[in-house]
Amino acid sequence: MINFDSAAPVRLKGVGDGFWITLDPSHPEEVLKAEIDKVFRNLKHLVINASVVIDVGDAKGHDDLIERLKSHIMAEFEVSKVSGPPEKDPSPPSGSGRGIFQRAGTIIEVMCSCSGELSAQARKLNPGSIL
Q: Which residue from 1, 48, 50, 99 could staple onto 18, CB 3.0 to 4.6 Å apart?
């Protein structure tokens, strides 16, 4: 049985065309490298040409460690790329959309806009209305 609450220094998850590694940076670098090696060696051919994301969660100030681990993974395994997690966009979503739905003979037009706040309008259309 898998224990997801374990305090493992390295956790691995398959994502898209690669793997997401979540690290606990409080462990020594050599322990992290050994755990990464063990996990990747167990995966054998599945790591070839895979993309790898290294994530330390909310921990700050570990850029040097991440760079050294990136270099280690690239040197030891035939992965296509190693990167950090994508940056989170702090801005609220924005955009607009329009949808036309027909239900039980009634045609409804819905328009939405989102620029910090979500607002929506709906109106009933008569058959033959110009859309």
A: 50
Q: Are 16 and 75 part of one and the same domain?
A: yes
Burial environment of residue 3 by CB neighbours within 10 A (0 to 12, 13 to 18, 19 or more):
exposed
CA-CA distance, 51 to 86, in Å (whole number)?
Answer: 13
**Statement to judge: residues 76 and 103 lie in one domain:** no
The residues with which 54 forms a beta bridge, in sequence order, are: 21
Check if the beta carbon of residue 38 is closer than 8 Å to that of residue 11: no
- 65-124 per-position pLDDT tens digit: 999 999 999 999 989 999 988 876 666 556 677 666 666 666 666 666 666 555 555 566
Give me the number of domains the chain comprises: 2
Amino acid at 5: D
Instruction: Return d(Cα 18, Cα 82) in angstroms, integer.
Output: 10
H-state helical runs in the chain: 29-43, 63-76
